[in-house]
From TrEMBL:
Organism: Gilvirhabdus luticola
Keyword Cell inner membrane: no
Keywords of this entry: Disulfide bond, Glycoprotein, Signal
Gene3D superfamilies with a match to the protein in the record: 1.10.1370.30
Classification via CDD domains: M2_ACE
Entries under Pfam families matching the protein: Peptidase_M2
Protein name, UniProt field: M2 family metallopeptidase
InterPro entries: Peptidase_M2 (IPR001548)
Matches recorded under PROSITE patterns: PEPTIDASE_M2
């Protein structure tokens, strides 16, 4: 008996010792992983900041023939790429992930982020990475330094956009539309080269193609993303079909032409036909008129006042000191990127925006949108979110928050409160809803259809260069019901006139996802936070709205985006709130379209 007791004690002691040793080993692994993450993050931040600074200069001061910016971008981005794609980093990261059951979830998320970033810059194909960086810089210089001309005189994309929004002169519209596409001819060869380089770069770490690589950031396959985009289009298609029919007849009447089966691209108030909202003017709701005496600076500070009113901190002084917010003077000897964007320069407090703000309704909305990004950055720049997870819950979240705040800032009660609309004026709510639908609904066949399918064809289906324009217009006709005003052969590359095709590649589905998410968030805020009609809300001054937004924003990417959505709004990703929002419009459109010929199929 005594021997048995001694044996049991010995076994127990041995097990306890082994368990203690195992705990020590587990703790040691966690400690080693954390030390690696801390060291990586410090270097990552320094190199990220250097890259952002070089890119900022290259986007805000474009001088024809000046190679200094290109050299600085190349140098900074190569250093960043060499570090993030280091073979040593990749091997260490993979080794830690082999024992991920012993790590905490925050460490696992950071390690996965490291591996994802490495796939874009793997050291094992460093020559390819360097070549791709050079090619990307050259493409940007061509894109943003291009001299747009009408009748031999230089013009700007801002002026082109204004004419397409406002002019009733079809001949003039055609000229500026064709001018807006000329840049594509200069970009076509560079785009073909970039497609090849981007694919070969990510092939090195096992991705089939660059489109698949970008989609994987959502923890989805290429096929899953394409299926989700198809689903979104199918859900909104009945409403889009009504909008398309309405627009064909209204535009034909406007230009004194026969009603076309498909809309000529230069008839629409946007270079790519992605936003038709300028087709409708809501009587008594002319925000452009209300803003005409305001300064561009007022528009920006007005946006900041909104965020402060719901409980966010003032913008840091660096925002106003370092941002490029307004159009360049007419006598400027250089150009800048006119595409509005928000920049988190150092993943800490250096927050900037690149815009060309003028006092218009479009920029009033844009400022609220871009500041939405800035405040997202500011919210997740906190000690609970590691540097490597200072991103949106997914890329679509970032755009969703910005677009939702842009939508909220354009609703009548909000604008009344800001003194931009007379509270006593009764507006036509149906026309206002139509205007919104011509923005948000009209966008989806372009974003989820044309752009997503075109980039899928580019990267995953090896679309040959001599079919770029043919494919682009096939997709525009299928999804948007839009055709070019004249024959557009392969000497053109109209897709490349879209900024994102060149320098934000294979990610445009982000915007489609964001539109679905924004209506989910807006619907929840309206009904459950403000207890207001989603069509007529006023976020301004609501600390409760601010608290809800902070609960979504403050965790950055340190979460599962699907779980965060369900926790925030109580449902998975769904277009239902968007369809519910625009449901009152269907009866009006069907009545307007009675007796008219539909040219889009009933389903797609």
């Amino acid at each position: 008996m005594k021997k048995i007791i001694l044996l049991i004690l010995a076994v127990t002691f041995f097990n306890c010792k082994n368990e203690t040793a195992k705990k020590d080993t587990d703790n040691n692994l966690k400690t080693e992983a954390q030390a690696f993450l801390d060291e990586y993050s410090k270097t990552y931040k320094d190199l990220y900041y250097a890259s952002a600074l070089a890119e900022w200069d290259a986007n805000t001061k474009i001088v024809p023939g000046d190679t200094l910016n290109a050299f600085n971008v190349q140098k900074a981005n190569e250093a960043f790429a060499k570090f993030t794609g280091s073979t040593d980093v990749i091997e260490k990261t993979k080794t830690f992930l082999e024992s991920k059951d012993l790590l905490d979830i925050k460490q696992i998320r950071q390690l996965n982020s490291i591996l994802y970033k490495a796939a874009n810059n793997p050291e094992i194909v460093s020559d390819l990475v360097s070549e791709r960086i050079t090619a990307e810089n050259a493409q940007n210089e061509t894109l943003f330094g291009f001299d747009f001309k009408v009748d031999g005189a230089s013009t700007t994309t801002t002026e082109i956009d204004r004419i397409l929004r406002e002019s009733n002169n079809e001949a003039k519209r055609l000229k500026v539309w064709e001018s807006s596409k000329e840049v594509g001819t200069e970009l076509k060869d560079g785009l073909e080269n970039l497609v090849s380089l981007r694919n070969k770069t990510v092939n090195a770490l096992g991705y089939d193609d660059y489109f698949t690589y970008q989609v994987s950031d959502y923890k989805m396959t290429r096929e899953e993303m394409l299926n989700d985009m198809d689903k979104i289009i199918k859900e909104v298609w009945p409403l889009y079909r009504e909008l398309h029919t309405w627009a064909r007849y209204e535009l034909a009447k406007k230009y004194g032409k026969n009603v076309p089966d498909y809309i000529p691209a230069h008839w629409l108030p946007n270079r790519w036909g992605q936003d038709w909202s300028a087709l409708v003017k809501v009587e008594g709701f002319d925000i452009d008129e209300a803003l005409k005496d305001k300064s561009a600076e007022w528009i920006v500070t007005e946006g900041e006042e909104f965020f402060k009113s719901i409980g966010f901190d003032p913008l840091p002084s660096v925002f106003y000191e370092k941002s490029s917010l307004y159009p360049l003077p007419e006598d400027a000897t250089y150009k800048k990127n006119n595409h509005a964007s928000a920049w988190h320069m150092d993943l800490e407090n250096d927050l900037r925006s690149l815009m060309s703000v003028v006092p218009t309704a479009e920029y009033y909305e844009t400022v609220h949108h871009e500041l939405g990004h800035i405040y997202y950055y500011q919210s997740y720049s906190n000690p609970d979110v590691p540097l490597l997870l200072r991103e949106g819950a997914n890329r679509g979240y970032h755009e969703a928050i910005g677009s939702m705040l842009g939508l909220a800032a354009m609703q009548k009660p909000f604008l009344e409160g800001r003194g931009l609309v007379d509270a006593n004026i009764k507006i036509d709510e149906t026309q206002n809803l139509l205007k919104e639908a011509l923005n948000y609904v009209a966008f989806l066949p372009f974003g989820a259809g044309v752009m997503t399918q075109f980039e899928n064809a580019l990267y995953a289906e090896n679309l040959p260069k001599d079919e770029y324009n043919k494919k682009w217009w096939e997709l525009a006709k299928k999804y948007q019901g839009m055709v070019p005003p004249t024959e557009r052969g392969e000497e053109y590359c109209d897709a490349a006139s879209k900024t994102h095709i060149n320098n934000d590649a294979a990610q445009y589905y982000d915007y489609a996802i964001s539109y679905v998410l924004l209506f989910q968030f807006h619907d929840h805020i309206a009904k459950n936070v403000l207890h207001q009609d989603p069509h007529a809300t006023n976020y301004f001054g609501s600390k409760e709205v601010g608290e809800f937004l902070k609960s979504v924003l403050r965790t950055g990417a340190n979460n599962d985006w699907r779980a965060l959505l369900k926790q925030s709004v109580g449902s998975e990703m769904s277009a239902k709130p968007m369809l519910d929002y625009f449901e009152p419009l269907m009866d009006y459109l069907k009545e307007e379209n009675k007796g008219r010929t539909y040219t889009l199929p009933e389903s797609i």
